[in-house]
Amino acid sequence: MAEAADATKKGGQDLVGGLDVRVHRNHFGRQVESFEADLRLDFLDEVDPTARPFHAIFIRAPVVDQILARVDGVQREQAEKEGVVVAPSKEPKDAAAAARGSEHVQVMGVLSRPPHLAQARHGDIVAVKQGNVFGTCFHPELTEDARIHVWWLGQVLKASGDGKP
Hints:
Blueprint: E1 2-6, E2 19-24, E3 35-39, E4 54-58, E5 63-67, H1 76-79, E6 84-86, H2 95-101, E7 106-111, E8 124-130, E9 133-136, H3 147-159
Parallel strand pairs: 1-2
Antiparallel strand pairs: 1-6, 2-5, 3-4, 7-8, 8-9
């Protein structure tokens, strides 16, 4: 979902794009360095105000390295950097799509207590939202905690004009 990524294999996985961020792929290491961590995700208060952390599962996890400036087309500045790949051009198809795309990236979650890994940093960005696109660096679908899914379905209902959360 990122517009740009570094630490990728030459000829590796293509980017889809949609979020004006650059990610550092496999930031925490290979699959054997996968880990779990509790995250404080304030947006989940809409679903469950108990303030319990979300137990996140990170497998070959990236982190958001940089929030990028919003541009139409290719992230040319990123494309010129050594070792960075970028998503194909994104041209708004209509005024409504252009309006949604003009929103800034919101940081929705950070890793506040890094696991015992040398490359982990306090404050690594692990969840972002831009307009109607939401991305995480962890796998919410691998837990029994459905709060992120419930929250996202609420976002879809709000965006559909239903007015219900």
